[in-house]
């Protein structure tokens, strides 16, 4: 039994896919399959069953994988002790981040983190939060920084840590008849043609799910381009619901005006999310700590215990 075999079976369990596990393990799919087959032969058991829905652990496989994760956790702790003593962190982090956060919190976070840890490779995917949650649950990302608008089915398998609470406001063009006001009712806001940030072709974005609780709305555009979203707002073609902490960012564009919702609080949370199956490495904890430090700059209560 080799250490890399433990990593291989955990990767398959996390992703539910041999091909994706091979990609994340930086080896070929045949090499990964061979590694697992040799381990199964050595142990005399079948670790995985293959179905049309993917690869799933057998009952005994679940028990072995749980122990493998514990062993990997101990190995990562040993590596962390060594890295901490040399003050040189290495490795890679795969992040999934909501665009509203990317254009504010993450700019300073990444700059600060890379200055402190230049040997760490950071790969960041920008996407809508519900889509990012699915990627994290599937093992495609180590953790994410997301906008949480409501409960999501994938959350049962995730650890969720709130960074701060916020609420949605309406962004309109300075040319809009509403721009002279400081606030609008929710009914007035939902009567506007809206632009929503969507990744892929799913229409279950977090903002959509929250608005549906209050009635119907008209989504004139669903875009996966943040610059285009800004453009259609500034041209007075659409309005958009965005987190209040982003108000200053949009106001600096000068052609966009934020309006409070006067009669309803559309509460949201900015959160860290990671899989319960994923052991947080030292570099991931360092990145999370850096993110938390910049979140604390906002005038919102920071919640949650320190990372263990």
From TrEMBL:
GO terms for molecular function: DNA binding; DNA-binding transcription factor activity. This is LysR family transcriptional regulator. Keywords: DNA-binding, Transcription, Transcription regulation. InterPro entries: HTH-type_LysR_regulators, LysR_HTH_N, LysR_subst-bd, WH-like_DNA-bd_sf, WH_DNA-bd_sf. It comes from the Bacteria. Belongs to the LysR transcriptional regulatory family. PANTHER family: HTH-TYPE TRANSCRIPTIONAL REGULATOR YBHD (PTHR30419). Residues 1-58 form the HTH lysR-type domain. GO terms for cellular component: cytosol. It comes from Paenibacillus rhizophilus.
